[in-house]
Amino acid sequence: MDLTTARDRAINKFNKLARRDIECPALGAKVKFNNEWFSHITYKDDKHRRAESEQIIRFQCFLDVEEVIKKSHLYQEHRTKEETIKVRKYGETKKEVKTIEYFWLVAVIDRHGTKSRIRVVLRKEEGKEHAEYHSVIPAWNTQGYRNFMGSLT
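Below the sequence we write its predicted structure tokens.
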């Protein structure tokens, strides 16, 4: 599958997900989707674009995110961080320090007879009742505990 096809399929899926919230039994909360997912799939950080092959894999994994969120009854990891985020108040954008919780949902997905692991990362901001989809990470190496405690980016 080429990048354009993978991207278009993921965007179509996102457009369906963005119209409604998904109930996540693992968190006991609804999950919302925002536009930040796209830049997280295409860029490693603000200045570095991901390789085309990595983008294709992440776009393909995005197609399975809804199923993982709906069927997960436990999260495999949880982390709380203090982060400076942009907040829009009274027509102005300001930076505030907030407590952000990250939750990892791990699943084995059967895609056309091939099983692969994906990790869905959900983000919950202090003071909000809902969680937000943050990222999907394709199969990763499990050569030690360190790999499960790796960075979110």
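Confidence is low (pLDDT under 50) at residues 144-153.
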